[in-house]
Amino acid sequence: MTAPVFVVDSLRPQDLTAGAYVLDGPEGRHAVSVKRLRAGEGVVLTDGRGHWAEGVVQAAEGKDRLVVTVPGGVREEPAEQPRITVVQALPKGDRGELAVETMTEVGVDAIVPWAASRCITQWKGERGLKALGKWRATAREAGKQSRRVRFPDVADAATSKQVASLLADADFAAVLHESGDAPLSGAELPAAGDIMLVVGPEGGVSPEELALFAEAGARPYRLGRSVLRTSTAGTAATAVLLSRTGRWS
What we know:
Keywords: Cytoplasm, Methyltransferase, rRNA processing, S-adenosyl-L-methionine, Transferase
Family: Belongs to the RNA methyltransferase RsmE family.
Catalytic activity: uridine(1498) in 16S rRNA + S-adenosyl-L-methionine = N(3)-methyluridine(1498) in 16S rRNA + S-adenosyl-L-homocysteine + H(+)
Domain Ribosomal RNA small subunit methyltransferase E PUA-like: 23-69
Number of strands: 12
Distance between the termini: 21 Å
Number of helices: 6
Mean pLDDT: 94
Protein name: Ribosomal RNA small subunit methyltransferase E
Largest sheet: 6 strands, mixed
Strand content: 15-25%
């Protein structure tokens, strides 16, 4: 079992004092009062943006303060290539958080919530902001649990036209759809740059959206013979791409 990961707001060499970092606040409380970490135990600190450090607990103070020595200093993990973004149509209920959680665990780099025309769920006003906050919190927690030091970006919710604009700028773009005449497992992929996958809602991607995305350069691909739910399709497709791009080698 690798050392537990704790997320900090900033992790730069200047954030260390005499080679040590003080972990406090909610993460400090979790480390001291929940994890009950003690002197000599290992931890990993990260800002979730690629900066990280392996540390050793020097002391636990009170209920929410952990002093961590960082003998190796702060390191930076470069962004993976190619970068994989999943445009995820809004699922019903809490299946959106499930999709974010599992995609984060397998290694997706960015997630774009998509208000597709056939989505039953719509993010509006305060309810939409709350839902977006849940997705971002889920990505953060799943990043910690899967021992990542670079968490996926969760963008603001996008319209179909905004998604098309993103697809047009990608180095490879695909729509997961049963009408695809080619398997995603056989697609020609770039060695670097941006890969974008579109996952439709339970009701499917509309013909108008398929046409709009095709104009932007995103053709339909299929995963297999079965049709996956929207909350699992992105995870399965990301796994296929990670194995083919060498990121899982």
